[in-house]
Write a structure and sequence with these properties.
Blueprint (H helix, E strand, L loop, with lengths): L1 H16 L2 H5 L6 E6 L2 E6 L3 H4 L1 H18 L9 E6 L2 H8 L5 E4 L4 E5 L8 H14 L7 H10 L1 E2 L2 E2 H10 L6 H7 L5 H19 L1 H10 L4 H5 L3 H12 L14
Helix pairs in contact: 4-6, 6-7, 7-10, 8-10, 10-11
């Protein structure tokens, strides 16, 4: 679902909006700019992000350092434009749809929702942003979610493998052959942790070079890359989940 919106959003923003100031102009509010190392921050003057700007700066820098190291390009230099607002309505005014965070790497821009009720989704969205810049556009755009969810290692407050095991035990997981073809039309509360867990399995079992090759070449080449079919890899991954302890998770509202 999110990546479908991303594709629509990228087309819209690159053809209609263009620059960061055009995002800012979607709201008639007073913006305050903080130019800092690696980022230009735009926050609502006097609002929540402005009141906690030192925490925001530190969080962004810490997450950036970790993601750049994870993606294995410590020498990468850039300036990302970060726009932060404090309500869902303002996010929707800017983007045209609801979100807690959204990366538009083609415009070097990331937009966040941040308030006392919503924490910054920095690691997830910045993983999208930096993976695009360092690894290129993924052959299968939905697979970008797998990398972002895995790197964040949580979904809806749950550790992704524990949550995925819970979904498996309750027979809620989608066959990967279906998920890979219909990702955007399936329940995102299942597909996101499931894809994140499978991405982690591939990474930890076979290493980052193969994962990056899959990122570049796509799932149509998975057997050439891993020497196993998607069905075989799926079986191995599901078996690996069986070694985890069962965790009492209440996830019924999302199914």
């Amino acid at each position: 679902m999110r990546l479908l919106l991303l594709l629509i959003g990228v087309l819209l923003f690159t053809t209609g909006f263009g620059q960061t100031d055009r995002f800012l102009n979607q709201l008639t509010i007073s913006w305050k700019q903080y130019p800092v190392n690696h980022f230009n921050l735009y926050v609502e003057e006097g609002r929540f992000a402005d009141q906690h700007i030192d925490l925001v700066k530190q969080d962004l820098e810490n997450q950036r350092n970790g993601i750049i190291e994870f993606l294995e390009n410590k020498g990468f230099t850039d300036t990302a434009h970060i726009i932060i607002v404090d309500t869902k309505e303002k996010i929707k005014k800017i983007l045209g749809f609801e979100a807690q965070g959204f990366a538009i790497p083609e415009n070097n821009t990331v937009i966040f929702l941040y308030s006392k009720d919503y924490s910054l989704a920095t690691k997830h969205e910045l993983t999208h942003y930096y993976a695009f810049h360092l690894w290129g556009r993924p052959a299968d755009n939905w697979f970008s979610e797998g990398l972002a969810v895995y790197n964040d290692n949580k979904w809806n407050g749950h550790q992704i493998d524990s949550l995925t095991k819970h979904l498996k035990d309750n027979k809620k997981l989608y066959p990967l052959s279906v998920l890979s073809k219909k990702f955007h039309s399936l329940n995102a509360m299942i597909t996101y942790p499931q894809t994140g867990s499978f991405t982690g399995f591939l990474l930890l079992s076979y290493g980052k070079p193969k994962l990056r090759e899959l990122w570049t070449k796509g799932f149509g080449e998975i057997k050439k890359i891993y020497g196993k079919s998607l069905k075989q890899l799926e079986k191995d991954w599901l078996n690996s989940l069986d070694h985890l302890l069962s965790v009492n998770i209440d996830y019924s509202n999302h199914l």
